[in-house]
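Long-time lurker, first post.

We've been arguing in lab meeting about whether pyridoxal-5'-phosphate would sit comfortably in this protein at all. Half the group thinks yes, half thinks no, and nobody has a model to point at. So I'm putting the question to the forum: if I give you the sequence and the SMILES, can you give me back a predicted structure of the complex? Inputs are below. Any interpretation is welcome too.
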Amino acid sequence: MIKHNFSAGPSILPKEVMKTASDAILEINNSGLSLIEISHRSKDFVDIMDNATSTALELLDLQNKGYKALFLQGGASLQFLMTAYNLLESKSGYLDTGSWSTKAIKEAKLFGDVIEVASSKEKNFNYVPKNFNIDPDLDYLHITTNNTIFGTQVKNIPETKVPLVADMSSDIFSKNIDFSKFSLIYAGAQKNMGPAGTTLVIIKEDVLGKVTRKIPSMLNYQIHIDKKSMFNTPPVFAVYTSMLTLEWLKKNGGISAIEKKNSLKANLIYNEIDSNELFEGFAEIEDRSYMNATFNLKNQEHKDIFNQMCLEANISGVNGHRSVGGYRASIYNAMEISSVNILVEVMKELKNKV
Ligand SMILES: *Cc1c(COP(=O)(O)O)cnc(C)c1O
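Top reply:
Settle the argument with this. Predicted structure of the protein with pyridoxal-5'-phosphate, as tokens:
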């Protein structure tokens, strides 16, 4: 049975990636050995790590521009503190657009001053603040490009000369932006790239080496760069599967091609939310996320029947986050247009059932 997986994370991955990753658990590269029982120092795995990091940089158009790609552990949540540990000397700026940025702010405060340049908290984060002032003396400005829980997305990267740091966990590789505007980008694999267990970190090396504190080795970006993400044993399965997804993306036309597909999917679902009188969207229209569409039924009495219809249509993972309620359809890169059409059909069909 095929399920249409709208889960926010861990989330849908391409079927062919899952098949190749499963095969590699049994045997990698005709070696007679499993991916998860070979040395991470073996040529088989070193090639995988090299390929994963170089494909990531290639897709983001960051090759030969002073950037390094790392695959680390600890999730995006560890990056909340690692970014501040490595970059925050005196004061930093944070755009507060949801639960994840709020958590990043909490960690950064352990290392220095944090200026909240703007927040959309007063409206339960249903929009992205714009036109805020950015102190030119900030060590860096941190933004969360896509707010997975609330379904908003930063459409215009703030213009500033201070180094930009971004949590792109839920929209990296989904649309083309000028990634070279950022000094540091991080993304937990489990939203748009691979299984949980690894985090992609992209760093422009010139942003490092500016803090005076001593940094423990495992939290030190420079050490991970020098050791090519192999300071300690990397999460081999998560890195391998992420590599497969990145290769899949490259083979299918890269970010420009997936961006077209993603905007088609987003338009399908938002058009239905806006034209169907039984539903309403959560996020302000101009800030709507192309990865996570948040919406609700206008009449909560229709909930049981809509949930039942979703179940019967094999739609999975559309329940909203507890801090927003309602529904959230996550339509990451691997989600097919046909699956979005099924959800839209069920939304249309609800009109005949109530
Ligand atoms: C899921 C998510 C996180 C948390 O990621 P972990 O890998 O679980 O730490 C952080 N930021 C954003 C934007 C997310 O979507």
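For your lab meeting: The chain has a mean pLDDT of 98. The CA atoms of residues 117 and 133 lie 7 Å apart. Whichever side wins, do check it experimentally.
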